[in-house]
Specification:
By secondary structure, this protein is mainly β. It has two domains: 1-39; 44-266, Porin, CATH 2.40.160. Helix content is 14%, strand content 70%. It is built from one helix and ten strands. It has an eight-stranded antiparallel barrel with strand order 2-3-4-5-6-7-8-9. A two-stranded antiparallel sheet has the order 1-10.
């Protein structure tokens, strides 16, 4: 009976030792993985994060000087503001080259002011505002410049997206015989944009970085517009309502500024791994 009890105790102890070895092995592997994923960038490193705000701005001014007729001059000023936010994911194909994709929620706000001067009538003015909301998706490519990684790394990036959505418009103005105000809906928006930027990644830790970038963006957007205009006659105060439906295509060129936070997760060990200097 004592011999059987002793053997049973030895078997139990052996099983416990094996279990402890497995736990220690798993723990050691986890620590090694954590060190690898938090300390190195290499081919195969996963790039994961978000662009918390990429803003764009563009403006245009047109001036027409008439050489015939009663109109003397017409000036038009347009300003476009854009903001987008969304997740980004990519993978390093080499120590320097990153290929990825992004999905963004975009807000575009445009204002247009026009004034026409005449030799016989008072100035004719028009003001309009348009707000569009779209969801875009597309690829990006990034190249990092460095010999030895440090806390601040310079990079260049090229990107393109396409998307769809809807929006709203409004306006007001003064004509020769009336004043007016308008409200409308913007539908069937399709836009695409392409751009490039130069930026710096600052590493708070070897695995967490913040991007700051300045660049150029080209955008083409088409949409369908349904617009209702209410006009008030200056002499008799009569009100008329008219419906104006039209299709619009807008092309803008502007400057972009972006900020983003990203994680650099290296899940495999590679001979090309490079330690970030912390």
């Amino acid at each position: 009976m004592q011999i059987q009890t002793g053997r049973l105790f030895e078997k139990t102890l052996t099983h416990k030792n094996k279990a402890m070895k497995k736990i220690l092995t798993i723990t050691a592997c986890s620590i090694a993985f954590a060190i690898t994923s938090h300390a190195q960038i290499s081919k195969g490193t996963v790039f994961l994060g978000t662009s918390i705000g990429s803003t764009t701005y563009s403006s245009s001014n047109d001036n027409l000087d008439y050489t015939a007729g009663t109109n003397i001059n017409k000036s038009t000023a347009a300003k476009t503001y854009g903001f987008n936010v969304g997740p980004q994911v990519g993978v390093f194909l080499s120590r320097h080259f990153l290929l990825g994709g992004t999905v963004t929620y975009n807000i575009t706000y445009k204002t247009t002011d026009a004034t026409t001067l005449s030799s016989v009538n008072q100035p004719v003015t028009a003001h309009s505002e348009t707000s569009n909301y779209t969801i875009n998706a597309g690829p990006f490519m990034r190249y990092y410049f460095y010999d030895h990684l440090s806390k601040n790394i310079l990079y260049v990036q090229a990107n393109a997206t396409a998307g769809t959505g809807n929006g709203a418009s409004s306006g007001n103005g003064v004509n020769v015989n009336s004043t007016y105000s308008s409200d409308g809906k913007v539908s069937n928006i399709f836009n695409w944009n392409a751009g490039s930027s130069i930026g710096v990644t600052h590493f708070f830790t070897p695995s967490v970085g913040m991007d700051i970038a300045l660049g150029y963006t080209y955008t083409s957007a088409s949409s369908g517009n349904m617009n209702s205009t209410e006009s008030t006659n200056k002499s008799n105060s009569n009100i008329t309502i008219s419906q104006n439906n039209y299709n619009e295509t807008t092309i803008t060129n502007g400057i972009s500024f972006g900020i983003g936070f990203h994680w650099y997760l290296n899940c495999i060990t590679s001979k090309e791994s490079v330690l970030i200097v912390s």
